[in-house]
Write a structure and sequence with these properties.
Order of helices and strands: EEEEHEEEEEHH
Number of helices: 3
Radius of gyration: 15 Å
Structural class: alpha+beta
Oligomer: single chain
Shape: globular
Largest sheet: 7 strands, mixed
Helix content: 10-25%
Length: 154
């Protein structure tokens, strides 16, 4: 397998207002003031030797700091994002209080060429979204996962 691969879990729940999904806002300075296109399925890169399902569960724990929910995993397939990363996602029904997450962090040089490194959260916040609003804020390529989940839940 060439290129970068990520795997993730899309948590969903049924409410009186309809289907909702849990998305994370990407941390770090590039996305700080962005909303549209700055939200993602909690996911992360993995080595091709690791099974994608195991990577998805591990990354959920690393990204959110809470264990992934048990429940039926609905395979939503994969998409290729701008930049070439291939993302594989499963949907799992569950509930999670966004206030309970304790996101992992990453380190990068910031400001650029300053020689200083800073630590940023992988996801600086997590929130539940109805499907229509989720489509407005999620990374464009990941809309396919929302469509596939909606088909499965219909």
């Amino acid at each position: 397998m060439r290129g970068r691969h990520s795997a993730g879990l899309l948590l969903f729940r049924h409410t009186d207002g309809g289907l909702e999904v849990l998305l994370g806002h990407m941390g770090g300075p590039f996305f700080a003031r962005r909303d549209a296109g700055a939200w993602t399925v909690p996911k992360g890169e993995y080595d091709p030797a690791e099974p994608a399902w195991e990577a998805a569960r591990r990354e959920f724990q690393e990204e959110l700091g809470v264990p992934p929910p048990d429940g039926e995993a609905v395979p939503l397939g994969e998409v290729r994002q701008t930049g070439g990363k291939i993302v594989t996602v499963w949907a799992v029904e569950g509930d999670l209080d966004p206030g309970s997450v304790n996101p992992g962090t990453f380190t990068m040089e910031w400001p650029p060429k300053s020689g200083r490194t800073q630590e940023f959260p992988e996801l600086d916040r997590v929130a539940w979204f109805g499907m229509e609003r989720a489509r407005e804020v999620i990374i464009k390529a990941q809309c396919a996962f929302l469509d596939r989940l909606a088909e499965h839940s219909a």
